[in-house]
Amino acid sequence: MLGITLKISGRKTHDQTICLVDELIGMTCSVLNKEASQTMLIIQFVPHEQWLIGRHFRDDAYGYGGVAQEYRHQREIYAEVKAIAEQKVQS
């Protein structure tokens, strides 16, 4: 059985969790030719105050336009994952 552990900073929301599960399971099954029923996914949300970049707390770390670095990175990764999944579905 394939197991994936994803750690993400921020507050847990039901909609975000469902979206992550759908995208990651779908992409994993497509890329690795696995069955969803045999793919385990663990999502761990880490509170912002426990998320550090280097020696800086999240709130102090490299803000740009009011958006912290890890949030910009999350958006970029999500966009990449979504684009790959959409390509796989179309092919």
Structural notes for this entry:
The chain is of the alpha+beta class. The chain has one domain (2-90): Macrophage Migration Inhibitory Factor. It is 45% helix and 22% strand. The protein has two helices and four strands, in the order E-H-E-E-E-H. The chain has helices spanning 14-32, 69-90, and strands at 2-9, 39-46, 52-53, 56-57. The strands form two sheets. A two-stranded parallel ribbon has the order 1-2. A two-stranded antiparallel sheet has the order 3-4. Helix 1 crosses helix 2. The radius of gyration is 15 Å and the shape is globular. It starts with a strand and ends with a helix. The relative contact order is 0.20. The mean pLDDT is 78.
Defining key terms:
two-stranded parallel sheet, about 45% helix, globular, Macrophage Migration Inhibitory Factor, about 90 residues
